[in-house]
């Protein structure tokens, strides 16, 4: 029956488990271990764990499993593994797969912590990484080494400059070389991007962002085939301790109920804010995939049918001018999170991407005047007035 359910129905009901009490709300199973009726049954469960059996919360838990099944159904994957954070999902998906001597091709435009995992962590253990311009399909083709390239990695929409990668085209290139496609889909959200339908093999999310959506808890998830999740990823995650807690899974389940409604409302407001900012003489550029002026507007509409919930804009006058605008904000809050119900302004050059060398920031378009805006659920008119008030000070 759930195969025919639409998105909002899946977000409310998919994966639900009820105890003998028939509770309406999803239960929180706050237990780290499970009781066996006999020593023989404990032995049998350790030999082979069935679908609805559990051993230890680091391996799995009924509440966590509800969340995994719900997000897998939404994403269109066979299975999922919930992790302690978004970076646990990224590092787990890569590290569980790769070995010394393997080769990875990655888009250059990435979140700072993702760059650290690829450059420092994987490099330390003998994995070679080639970085390319994510929008340049010829660069992806040239970087592939058939039989050696084990994976490609990219953000479907980059942080913070909102550059898109053509998921279908890059997936085709990667698969021809025998590589697995791992996509960080956070900015695109599971509502606007079905990366699996476009060819991705593995999709990772920081559930801290839109899935929770209210700034309450860290979490992540890796979605993919049952083969990858249970045979490649799960052994690594359960032995290294990167699994999600039952309480966090319960928070994420409750966040998912309103995920579609929130993402669509936020994207509608983001478009209005971007349109209001575009053409302002105090700005050097406004970046939003939903605007026709965005270089990849056509790809955004084909791949997402939306511009998403994120905006970036560059204030003329560099860091000092950007700080004046940010410090004048009243409705919009200063933070480094995103995907929240509250609209958030971030200065990437001095926060999320601070560790990057200046030449690399320049190459990625992370200028001193760039502000990243995660649009929340406030009235779009109030957000526009707040931004205009800040801009009036420069």
In short:
With 394 residues, this protein is an alpha/beta fold. It is built from 15 helices and twelve strands.
Summarize the amount of helix as a percent range. Answer: 25-40%
Shape-level CATH architecture of the largest domain = 3-Layer(aba) Sandwich
Beta-strand level of the residues, as a percent range? 5-15%
Number of strands: 12
Instruction: Indicate the radius of gyration in whole angstroms.
Output: 21 Å
Trace the largest sheet across and list its strands. Answer: 1-7-6-5-4-2-3
Residue windows where pLDDT falls under 50 for at least 5 positions:
none
Which CATH class of the largest domain is shown?
Alpha Beta
Major sheet, described briefly? 7 strands, mixed
Element-level helix/strand string? HHHEHEHEHEHEHEEHHHEHEHEEHEH
CATH topology of the largest domain: Aspartate Aminotransferase, domain 2
Detailed description of the structure:
The protein is an alpha/beta fold and 394 residues long. The protein has 2 domains: 2-256, Type I PLP-dependent aspartate aminotransferase-like (Major domain) (Aspartate Aminotransferase, domain 2); 259-391, Aspartate Aminotransferase, domain 1 (Alpha-Beta Complex). 40% of the residues lie in helices and 15% in strands. The protein contains 15 helices and 12 strands. It has a 7-stranded mixed β-sheet with strand order 1-7-6-5-4-2-3, with helices on both faces. Strands 8-9-12-11-10 form a 5-stranded mixed β-sheet. Helix 4 packs parallel to helix 5 and helix 13 (318-327) packs across helix 15. The longest helix has 19 residues, at 259-277. The mean pLDDT is 96.
